[in-house]
Amino acid sequence: MTLPAIGTVRAAFPEARITVLANQMVAGLFFTHPWVDEVLIYDRKGAHKGVGGRLRLAKELRQHDFDLAVLLPDSFDGALIAWLARVPRRLGNRSDGRGILLTHAFPLALQPKGVHQSENYLAMLAHFGIIAGKQRQLLFTTDAEDLAMAGRLAEGGIAAGDFLLGVNPGATYGSAKRWYPERFAAVARELASAWGAKIVITGGPGETVIAADIERELAGSCINMAGKTSVRELMALVKRCNFFVTNDSGPMHLAAAFEVPLVAIFGSTDHTTTYPLAPNAVIIRQTVDCSPCMKRECPTDHRCMTAVTPEAVVEAAKKLLSRVTG
């Protein structure tokens, strides 16, 4: 969701050296990206943990002699690090009590409400005169990464010309965002039959149990890659998919950035601010009185997810693919 903002900064400052500071989980997204010259890792659980770690990181950043820090996440921590690093211009939203740490604070009253998060970032940049037209949300993999993933899929019986259906049942924020394994399996079974597709299950290390449940439901007629890919490998895998069925999650945004047609299932989260930025994406959700609650765990009966049926997802997927290929 930060990519349109990063693209805007690149377009506005074509000769600048742009460095992205990101945590270990997402830093890999920006490797080899044409908008980014360098990626620094914020290791908040290791080298940069605690007060001493923050000071160590600030010292590391000072050595780069940055002219401007563009702070996209609304965190006090990010503003504090930029301040400690003595970056002379520190630009970001006025939020979380961090206004005093910013030289250019975007007032809360001017921050747009009810729009996609990427629009908030662009509005903040525009307020300070950084405008370069609408930038698409794009990610890139290398030819070597694509070939390596093709080889791994071939070992599982998936050839280059096969229609590949990606199923992503996880969501790291919490179980409230997750649809049910048996329903993902039912959708995958139906779509694979209708499209003559091969099935691949994606997910991170914390989602292997859910993925295994789907694999069992499908009686092994799939490749389970959950917990078996790095960020870069996951990017290549999602890019290879011809269609993607997913919860609201990081892989959903990867599929959108690679313009893979997708159906995204939303429940506890706000679809108006985090929907997939792609023309060939459909959101499935049911309006219930307590959604979006934005909670990690459902305190009641998970009605926002139980109300979403496999039949609704299958119908939406078939309609979308028909329109895309039509």
Q: If you had to describe this structure to a student in words, what would you say it looks like?
A:
With 326 residues, the chain is an alpha/beta fold. It folds into 2 domains: 3-127, Rossmann fold (3-Layer(aba) Sandwich), CATH 3.40.50; 143-325, 3-Layer(aba) Sandwich (Rossmann fold). It has 13 helices and 11 strands. It has helices spanning 3-12, 24-27, 50-62, 76-84, 117-127, 143-155, 181-195, 208-217, 231-240, 250-257, 271-274, 303-306, 310-325; strands at residues 19-23, 38-42, 68-71, 89-93, 104-106, 164-168, 198-201, 223-224, 243-247, 262-265, 281-284. The strands form 3 sheets. The protein has a 6-stranded parallel sheet, sandwiched between helices. A 3-stranded parallel sheet has the order 3-4-5, with helices on both faces. Helix 7 links the parallel strand 6 (164-168) and strand 7 (198-201). Helix 3 (50-62) crosses helix 4, helix 7 (181-195) crosses helix 8 (208-217) and helix 7 (181-195) runs parallel beside helix 13. The longest helix is centred in the last third of the chain and has 16 residues, at 310-325. It is globular. The chain starts with a helix and ends with a helix. The model has no long low-confidence stretch (mean pLDDT 90). This is lipopolysaccharide heptosyltransferase II. Keywords: Glycosyltransferase, Transferase.
